[in-house]
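Suppose a colleague, Dr. K., hands you the sequence of a protein chain of 85 amino acids and asks what its three-dimensional shape might be. Before reaching for any lab equipment, you can write down a predicted structure in token form. Begin with the sequence itself:
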Amino acid sequence: MSANGLARWLRVVVAPVDKVSEKLWTGNESAQVIVGASRPELLGVRDWAEEGLRFRAELSTFVEDGPVSVTPALQGPVWSSESWW
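The predicted structure, expressed as tokens, is then:
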């Protein structure tokens, strides 16, 4: 997606209100305090709930590399480009 003419990542998570895992829900936000780790910068967060579901949208800076894992748990060895480090 684009915001102010710049490419951005938009991550949206949804879960039943009574099934929200705080690690999944706030992990990206909590990780921002770790110094020295390469990662997209979290630019904004919006939470809301409706009809028994809780939603979270996170806007981050764009990076060319794909995600390390498309699931919450790693499914195999981790690979990242040299530019990531």
